[in-house]
Design a protein that fits this description.
Trigger factor, domain 2, extended
Length: 430
């Protein structure tokens, strides 16, 4: 066996594999031994019929497909591994037989490979910096959540509904005057302020009274899961049947001792504030890092093979299915309820998947070009930090770390250093 390869269009490599007549004959013999049990020939028990008899009965090409699979499975992975320094396969190849004789077999594989990304610039850009601050109102709202553990549900009849209430409503959604699938329900219980519905919906229901009806207008997000509703303005007719409110206990030292493990309300509030400030800090960092990557990706040129996009769509759909499962729903039922096929459902994630793939390619390229690595000293320091956080000695903590966890620690250091580098080499504007 010998082979040649060359770069082809659309981030693929054309791999031509030549097999000798002896290799082809051996593959046919292996195919016969693997599959002879499925062929029935009069006068012979299944699995006992000689190869020439089967070929004469079913035709000379009876074992060809299985023989091609033998050659492919034995040689293709070896070639891909051997040429890993030259290209990285990212999906199954398209196979064809270019020549087939008793003396020679030529297989051609069009292999989708990881593409080269051309970055216009990743230094000197002006990029939006995000900063989130925690207000006293947010601290109080978060602190009061602990009171829900002993809250009493009460019927409300003497006021309009407000955030935190659970309302029982009918709603019917339409776009351009036409009702759309999945947009209508009767006697639906909705907690206002939960963020269960699209932005603007719950805010406009707040303020309604029992028996009141009204139309509200909302706009579906541009990345909404139903392709036919993305970015569309919709009108929902709402009728409110009932309101249930929550009667909260008083926040006292005794209450926080019981439910939060804090000695005093002041200590509990300090913990809540610290937690929210840490979250705000993390959110600010994450949004700024996303902003940096989006700005850099906007300067890029890259021909991403469909196999990589399809693979990332698989990941997105799998995550979506898992979130549905937590709610007791199955993906196939959800898709049917939305009036979609699986193909339509997957298609709506294609652009998101492409963006994710491009982002990862950009990250990998900058890390490589700038030679950003995690030193052994940095890894040891991170391990010591994590060990201290769980109150273990470094030696004991290391015993809990497998190779995957060690790889994660090293990668986390590299990513942190990458964004430190990008933040230092670009202008971040609030």
């Amino acid at each position: 066996m010998n082979y040649t390869f060359e770069a082809s269009e659309k981030s693929t490599v054309k791999l031509v594999i030549n097999f000798t007549g002896e290799e082809w004959k051996s593959a046919i013999d292996q195919a016969y031994l693997r599959t002879r049990g499925k062929y029935a020939v009069p006068g012979f028990r299944k699995g006992k019929c000689p190869k020439p008899v089967i070929e004469n009965y079913y035709g000379k090409a009876v074992f060809f497909d299985d023989a091609f699979n033998v050659l492919y499975s034995e040689h293709y992975p070896v070639i891909i591994e051997k040429e890993s320094a030259n290209f990285t396969a990212v999906g199954a190849p398209e196979l064809s037989v270019d020549e087939l004789t008793d003396e020679k077999v030529v297989l051609t594989a069009i292999v989708p490979v990881k593409p080269e990304v051309k970055i216009g610039s990743y230094k000197g850009l002006e990029i939006k910096k995000y900063e989130y601050n925690v207000t006293e109102e947010e601290i109080k709202t978060e602190a009061d959540k602990i009171l829900l553990r002993e809250a009493k549900t009460v019927e409300v009849t003497d006021r309009a509904c407000k955030s935190g209430d659970t309302v029982n409503i009918d709603f019917a959604g339409s776009v351009d005057g036409e009702l759309f699938a999945g947009g209508s329900m009767e006697h639906y219980d909705l907690e206002l302020g939960s963020g269960s519905f699209i932005p603007g919906f719950e805010d406009q229901v707040a303020g309604m009274k029992i028996g009141e009806e009204k139309d509200i207008k909302v706009t579906f997000p541009a990345d909404y899961q139903a392709d036919n509703l993305k970015g569309k303005e919709a009108t929902f007719h709402i009728k409110l049947h009932a309101i249930k409110g929550k009667e909260l206990p008083e926040l006292t030292d005794e209450y926080v001792k019981k439910h939060a493990g804090s000695e005093t309300v002041a200590a509990y509030m300090a913990r809540v504030k610290e937690r929210l400030e840490n979250k705000a800090k993390n959110d600010s960092r994450d949004q700024t890092e996303n902003s940096i990557l989006q700005a850099i990706c906007a300067t890029c040129e890259c021909e991403i093979p469909q196999a990589m996009i399809d693979g990332e769509v698989d990941n997105i759909v799998q995550d979506f299915a898992q979130r549905l499962a937590y709610q007791g729903l199955q993906l196939k039922d959800y898709i049917q309820y939305m009036g979609q096929t699986m193909e339509q459902f997957r298609a709506q994630f294609a652009e998101q998947a492409r963006s994710r793939v491009l982002t990862q390619l950009v990250i990998e390229k900058i890390i490589k070009d700038e030679n950003i690595t995690a030193t052994q000293e940095e890894i040891e320091a991170k391990i010591a930090e994590q060990a201290a956080s769980v109150e273990k000695s470094v030696d004991d903590y290391k015993k809990t770390l497998d190779s995957r966890r060690m790889e994660y620690i090293a990668n986390d250091i590299v990513i942190t250093k990458l964004f430190d580098f990008l933040s230092a080499n670009n202008k971040l504007v609030a």
